[in-house]
Amino acid sequence: MTPQSLFRPFVAFSRQFPLAANILRRLLLSFVLLWAVTVMIFIGVEALPGDFATTYLGQSATPEAVANIRSELGLDQPLLTRYVTWLGDAVSGDFGNSWASGQSVSEQIGKRLGNSLFLAFFAALVAVPLSVGLGLLAVRYRNRIPDKIINILSLAAVSLPEFFVGYLLIMVFVVTFPTAIFPSTVYDGMDFLTRLESIALPVATLVLVVLAHMMRMTRAAIIQVMSSAYMETAELKGLDGLRIIIKHAAPNALAPIINVVALNLAYLIVGVVVVEVVFVYPGMGQYMVDAVTVRDLPVVQACGLIFATIYIALNMTADILAIIANPRLRHPR
Amino acid sequence: MPELLEVKDLKIEATSYPPGEDPVRITIVEGINFTLERGKVLGLIGESGAGKSTIGLSALAYGRGGVEITGGQALLDGEDLLAMNRKEIRAIRGAKVCYVSQSAAASFNPAHRIGDQVIEASLRHKLMTKAEARERAAYLFDILGLPEPESFGKRYPHQVSGGQLQRAMTAMALCSRPDLIVFDEPTTALDVTTQIDVLAAIKLAIEKTETAALYITHDLAVVAQVSDDIMVLRDGAMVEYGPTEQIIEQPEEDYTRALVNVRSIKHQEAADQKRKYFEMSGIHAAYIGGVKVLNDVSLHVPKGQTLAIVGESGSGKSTLARVATGLLPPMAGEVRIEGEPLPAALKQRSRDQLRRLQLIYQMADTAMNPRQTVGQIIGRPLTFYEGVRGAERDRRVQELLDQIEMGEGYIDRYPAELSGGQKQRVAIARALAAKPEIIICDEPTSALDPLVADGILHLLLDLQKKKGLSYIFITHDIAIVRAIADSVAVMYQGELVRFGPKSEVLSPPFDDYTDLLLKSVPEMHLGWLEEVLATRKIESAGN
Fold first, then answer.
1. How close A220 comes to chain B (CA, Å)?
2. Coiled-coil ranges per the record (chain A) (predicted)?
């Protein structure tokens, strides 16, 4: 069989079902990416300077004690063997035990991830509709005062580093006008409303950080669509303004908006390390930072892998939604 | 009975915002008066910038971009459209007055089915029920000659051809039974062979539905076929206005006469065409994963002569240029200059081989870096091929600017500060800077107004005489071929159907495709459209 005849069925399939072919291709790409990430995380963590045994033992690190701990943790095995064992366990959801506390990493992460998702969910719940709404508003009053105000404020918010925004909010709402709860620690058995109240400040910080990006992308996407010839056609059909935007502009502005929303959702889960540390919030980010300081490798690896998976999954979802939103792929010639 | 549309003393202005200065008001159109009876067609003709689209859109009280209608009246059945509020004008648009744009491909929303878009206005204005509208759409698809009229509407815009989309847009305009349709260059973006079918379909549909129309175009020969009256416009003002017959046969103004007799070039075909200076032999080519675009094409051009390659879009004529320049290495076949084979791929060609073969593109706009000055654009090949720099380079650039008849004062300008014709001249100068022997011209005049295009063709022929250049001139316009070519190659669906001296190729007996191509070129006399349709043998592949 020549290589060409080997590929022919795939080519024929993607001609006939471009939508399915594109989605499959995207899924495949995600898995390849994810695998590449596992390699990078494993090697990256290996390459970290410092050693758990020496850090853990501190002053009493005699060569024998270090060697003992190393063999206890399996660090004397070859790199490849450790990678395969780790990957095999990770796929089945077992990330091993923390070296520092000896407890199951999966269990600890489960709770932490829940906290992080809780924070991200409420930040997204505020940020997504707010930024899309502000984007629409900015388009509606394009180049006029409301547009300019929205632009300046959101740019100012995005220009400040998130820890600075966080401390600023703490200064205003905790120190000067004590209205908000700080630190934002949550624990088991806390009732829902108190929990919401205590995450108010970190949510506000996150919203301020991601708002501008999504808002500006929405504005740009809609302006781009509004200037296309088919919008003029709609206008010259005598349709009313709202119908023009909803029926004719929105379906075509969807893909870029979905993409930027997904990118920011990923940031809300993955990129919140700094915010969690500032507000002493017991999420994944803080867990990972703590683990890095004591060279608790299983925890660092697990956190890295989960972050990467979330990131890849969200981007994949966005791409697939964008593929589905494209009529050319949905309805081939 | 009152006139359907009466435009009185129309004045249209735009605001321009020069960077760093106060906004400036510019008058685009002034002092336009005309009337249109029910069921009649008025042709608005002029070059780009003449204000013809702007005037056409005033019948919908619409100003494109920053354009504002600031004076005069547009009376539809005695009511002034320009005095109406937003709600009143919305009730007119899409119901009583409809619009057909130049590019149907861009004017259909890619996210919705064609049928839904065609009937949308009729439903929104509550003119008919959904079932009635669907039935009317199918009827219109039928008289416009679209395939499977009952199910055509179920397709999406990307699933049909450009010619079909243009007809579908006409159906969209006709669907709500409007009193008036504004056709804005509805066939300009189409191939000649497709244009003629769309033109005939539009004409038939206008007659059957007794709709009045404003027909906007830059092509006098086209408008002569469909309109009852013609208004000639230039720089936003009226030049001449009268019955079609009078404008075509006895134009009163000099400008109109120039438009009627635009093809002023007479080029004597060279006697000896046997010497193969530049040659392509047995070329087969395909794009990756695609179908074959070129099938066994062999042709040549002697030194100092012009070979015209004609064919409709998709015939493979631009692919041939890509193979010649090495942008697309062929699957089989060879490209030779003076008998010496050129490497197939661009990267393998030496600097001197690259120099001998230059290219001029259709869109001078996109072929130039907007952030570079004319001096940088033309100077680049001078530095690249000869290492010329500094004051010497400026001197050479100025010399080239003189050769393209642009003179002093352009070196420091940016492309955006030039007119369309000037941009194409700069592109020619850039090609000349390399001191080429062969220039491939890919439709260099098709984006230009007829009079400007005429100037460019004159320039190319002059340069050919002075420098002994060979041209491979790709075009879909037979009139240009007649004007400038020595030999002609006719392409159809990737094959060379005819090749030889111009006098032979353009004389009978014809093969079916050449016959169709030649007959599709609009001619400047009344009744041409009907004559042609009566004698056609095959249909265009683009339909």
1. 17
2. none
